[in-house]
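Table S2 (continued). Query chain:
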Amino acid sequence: MIRLHHCHQTRSMRVLWLLNELGVEYEIAVHPFDKSLRSPEYLVLNPAGRVPALEMEGEVLWETGAITEVLCERFPERGLGRPPGDLDRSDWLIWVHFAETISQHTAALTQQHIALYDDAMRSPIVMKLEAKRLEKCYAAVEGRLSTPVENRDYLLTSGFSAADISVGQSIYMAKHYARIEPFPELTKWYQRITDREAFRQSLPPEGAELLYPQEFYPPWEG
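Corresponding output:
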């Protein structure tokens, strides 16, 4: 049995979406996004004190990029990975891991807007810089999707993959701080992939405690 340790609206949602796309059986342990992730019991699962942690076949995996690679190799029949030798292998790896580039800027903004409890600790400069960095990431995705090749509905020429899941979930979080509408190809792609049932199944259930209670957080002026 696969067991995912998860917090709503965090990177572990990326793994949850992938599990839903794979169509495999799993259990989910939902944790509050608080200091309980630093408990000795949880640190056995993820020594960084973060989500996700994935228990599978007697092993515990952590770090979303690694989990994505392992799950796609474990369930190749779903076609969400690109194995060594595949023409899209290198691009698949690039985009799977580019999700973390996006997420690191989102994490900085989440700290500024949400985690810091005192306005004196917040920095308008950091907020504006990190939001602009997210827009640079959006521009990279926009450029990829604007490449003049056939069937560029997804990040890879060969079609939908875990790369779309990884980058799409990172943008789900990032769009709380930087709007995607100025990037038309990205916006169409995002609408396309988030219309999938597996994405909807990975969203927080009604009544769940949310990391992002607001839909959008404009830069703080101080």
